[in-house]
Design goal:
mainly alpha, 2 domains, two-stranded antiparallel sheet, 67% helix
């Protein structure tokens, strides 16, 4: 007897199929076929309702959508609304290609705010601000250093990058370092080496997409992937690992760690502020919303990043990016499962 799919997998599968319909519509619109608009108008709302009640197709579908929709609104924390905004701002990009700099910056800014609110809700405003400032400063610092000296990523330039820029670096870049590091560290269960690896796999898709959009240009003689050398990916792993290490020391409980699990963790800092000091717009108790986690952002990017590469005609890079990011998700899941087994043993 074949095992049945879980309700969660059924909802996710149907929702992604509906998103695929909308994506096909975008491709048709780009090709000049007006029927694509109908597929977009049908696929986007359909993906939402199927994500809610795709496991209850039949007579109970309507009541289930209503019931779960009300529950979803009731337990949606502030950071979740900004994650939804970040994803929504990616949707118009295929239909307004010249607006990519505006939409990309707005989407990244929404994700930055979502990350800030997530840490604030789970920990407190002080830790949220410190972690955001550290990631922004380190991210900006390594990009300024890298674009001017070639260390630690290789020989590249931001000369043609769209505004706004800070010290010659597009603002979208240091803003992204905070959210990328946070979602990778959440997904890794607080393992810095794995968080760095997940960020490196993320960059597999960022390189061909962002170079196609003119954000940076590679001139490294040892270009390996979309002009980027092996040094770039080692650099991404190193910087990501370092930032994740800082994050786990500042807020070990945020990533499911006890302070003693990492030798450098600062127990005095962890005790200095109360947990859960952040804003809450939820109509349910805090425990009811605590199951959601920022790691969902990585899964969203695993859909949109390869999709963006398809839209700019980078089909091979899209396939490699999809395999890389899904492989990262599978590795993180396996490592987490092994941790649970060892803890229960």
């Amino acid at each position: 007897m074949r095992p049945r799919l879980s309700p969660t997998l059924r909802r996710a599968g149907l929702a992604f199929a509906a998103l695929g319909m909308a994506f096909l519509g975008a491709l048709l619109v780009i090709a000049g076929t007006s029927v694509g608009w109908a597929l977009i108008a049908l696929g986007l709302p359909l993906s939402g309702v199927l994500a809610l009640a795709g496991d209850s197709l039949g007579r109970s579908f309507g009541p289930t959508v209503t019931q779960r929709g009300r529950a979803l609104v009731a337990q949606t924390a502030p950071w979740m609304w900004f994650v939804a905004l970040y994803a929504a701002l990616k949707i118009p990009v295929p239909l307004w290609p010249e607006g990519f700099p505006v939409l990309g910056l707005a989407s990244t800014a929404a994700l930055f705010v979502a990350a800030l609110l997530f840490v604030w809700e789970r920990e407190n405003a002080a830790k949220a601000g410190i972690m955001a400032a550290l990631a922004f400063a380190v991210g900006l610092g390594v990009e300024v250093l890298g674009s001017r000296t070639g260390i630690p990523f290789g020989d590249y330039s931001y000369a043609g990058a769209p505004a706004p820029t800070l010290l010659g670096v597009p603002l979208i870049v240091p803003l992204g370092w905070f959210a990328l590091t946070l979602t990778a560290t959440c997904l890794s269960g607080g393992r810095p080496w794995l968080a760095g690896l997940l960020m490196m796999l993320w960059d597999v898709g960022l390189e061909p997409l962002m170079t196609a959009q003119g954000y940076w240009t590679w001139s490294d003689l040892l270009g390996l992937w979309a002009g980027a050398p092996l040094e770039n990916f080692v650099g991404w792993w190193g910087v990501g690992t370092f930032l994740a290490w800082l994050f786990t020391g500042l807020a070990p409980r945020l990533f499911g760690l006890k302070s003693l699990e990492w030798a450098w963790a600062l127990p005095w800092f962890a005790r200095a502020f109360p947990m859960g000091g952040g804003p809450s717009l939820s109509l349910l108790p805090r425990a009811a919303v605590s199951r959601a986690d920022f790691r969902v952002v990585y899964a969203i990017e695993a859909f949109f990043l390869p999709g963006g590469l398809v839209l700019v005609g980078r089909y091979g890079e899209a396939a490699v990016t999809l395999v890389a990011m899904l492989g990262g998700l599978a590795l993180a899941r396996r490592v987490q499962a092994q941790r649970v087994v060892r803890r229960d043993a």
